[in-house]
Write the structure tokens for this entry.
Amino acid sequence: MAHVKKNISWSQPLILAIDNSTMYGNVALTSPDGLLAERILLSRLTHSKRLLASLADILTESELDWPQLDAVAICLGPGSFTGLRIGLATAKGIAMATGLPLIGISSLDGLASQLPFASQQICPILDARKHEIYAALYGSSASGEVERTSDYLVMPPEQLVEKIDRPTIFVGDGVNVYGEYLKEALGPKALFAPEHIIFPRAAAIAKLALSHYHREQFLDPASAVPHYIRASDAEIQRQKKLNPAK
């Protein structure tokens, strides 16, 4: 069931955010005053069924309708290829049908933003399969703003370890897969975020989207694409067919 605050007059903009990048499909509705509603579910249902049901719940229970919203924000990835495609297709459909501006946010940025005021380096990691992880490095300023200090990366965990030269907080579902290895390889330099924030949250995506909204940094719904970082298996096979010599 969705967690909802109701019967309160909220300031604008109202942003509906969708994160479909991991097994934890989730949606959130926020205003500058804070989180209005949130729906999080670890489910065996397909991404599309889970997402559409969550959107219906959050709007119905918050007693709001599409014309009252100001923007839709989507987690662009990296993450599950299928989940990202379905999430973005849903957000693009909403934007086109309602005229709401579309805002795209990285899942790694969203994860890092859940650790404001951290004095240590932050490194969100997501399981990319094939013994690789998606990652990036971040620092937190005195005001709590989290800023990326590296490129978005996809690499084996052994290569990531070579980039860690100071105490670093790891967050993301990659911790479940590679946490023990990171402890062994990095010793006291490996710190870990609480388990309840190991997945990207739509509420964090919406919070980051607020500054994009004020700067009018919107995506074109017709041309927006997920941020995979790594080519999909289908794309790799297609390139092999086009360039068999490589």
